[in-house]
User: What shape does this take?
Amino acid sequence: DILGYLIEYYQLNSDEKHFEWKRLAIMTKKSSQLISNLHAGSTYQFVVRARNAFGYGQPSLLSELIETRTDQQANDEFVRLLDPINVQ
Assistant: This one.
């Protein structure tokens, strides 16, 4: 039985010469997870490990590069402007 997951991720920054993996231990059996505190307009890569009674398993393949939205992109998605209609 799966007891939880370990999500590891890093942020790609063009101004840094190295990167550091961050770990987020999730003690739930849910297969989806919302990760907060990511920076807007940044690029991330993720890997996941499942945990059972024996410990953590092998890591998943690296995810595709995931780019977070900027604040403006997030606002644009929720605001939809319709063409004006003449009402007589």
Q: What stands out?
A: Residues 29 and 35 are 16 Å apart (CA to CA). The longest helix spans residues 71-78. The chain is about 10% helix and 30% strand. The first strand starts at residue 4 and ends at 12.
